[in-house]
Amino acid sequence: MNRYAPQVQRAIRAQMISDGLYSTGKTARSVSAKVGETDNSIGIGIDKSSAFSGSSAFVFDILQFGRKAGRTQPPYRPIARWMKQKNISDFPGMNTRQTAFLIARSIGRKGTIKRFGYQGRNISELAMLRIVRAILSDSSEAYIKDVEQHLKNSTSKNVN
């Protein structure tokens, strides 16, 4: 599983880029996938506690899960910075601050993101779908080898 963690990181970053959820790259670079293990399972989790700065973790959560409608609008200044980074034009007859304010108000009223139904994108699930075939293929091969080894060990014990 350790070899899949970097693939998960790359898949999440690629998903963010393909969905147009990439501005400066700070949030995408902050993604860290780690392998976790318990007594009866092994998995890969997305870690944002150690690798993420506070704002990047918040941004990733908004991209991942969305922001519900009917909440207090977010501050407009980060939206204005985002507009400049993405080279988004002001609304006709308005400056960047006014446009960012209207976008913030719309987010507060409707939620995020319009093209995703005002919900989050579920980036990590989509990213995992990108690499799940490779993981299943490799894990199936490993399982078959384990079964073959178990059968070989059992039959050699029964023969003697």
Radius of gyration over C-alpha positions, nearest whole angstrom: 22 Å
Order of helices and strands: HHEEHHHH
Helix content: 55-70%
Low-confidence stretches: 49-54
- How much of the sequence lies in strands comes to 5-15%
The average pLDDT value, as a whole number, equals 77
Biggest sheet record? 2 strands, antiparallel
Number of domains: 2
Instruction: Give the overall shape.
Output: elongated
Briefly note the structural class of the backbone: mainly alpha
Give the termini distance in whole angstroms: 36 Å
Q: How many helices in DSSP terms?
A: 6
As laid out across the biggest beta sheet, the strand order is: 1-2
Number of strands: 2
Index terms:
160 residues, mainly alpha, two-stranded antiparallel sheet, 6 helices, 2 strands, 58% helix
Could you explain the architecture of this structure?
The structure is a single chain. The protein is mainly alpha-helical and 160 residues long. It folds into two domains: 1-66 and 117-153, no CATH class; 68-111, no CATH class. Helices cover 58% and strands 8% of the residues. It has a two-stranded antiparallel sheet with strand order 1-2. A hairpin with a 4-residue loop joins β1 and β2. The longest helix is centred in the last third of the chain and has 37 residues, at 123-159. The protein is elongated and about 85 Å long. The protein starts with a helix and ends with a helix. 18% of the residues are buried.
How does the SSE layout of this entry go?
Elements: H1 4-18, H2 26-29, E1 32-37, E2 42-47, H3 54-65, H4 76-85, H5 96-110, H6 123-159
Antiparallel strand pairs: 1-2
Helix pairs in contact: 1-6, 4-5
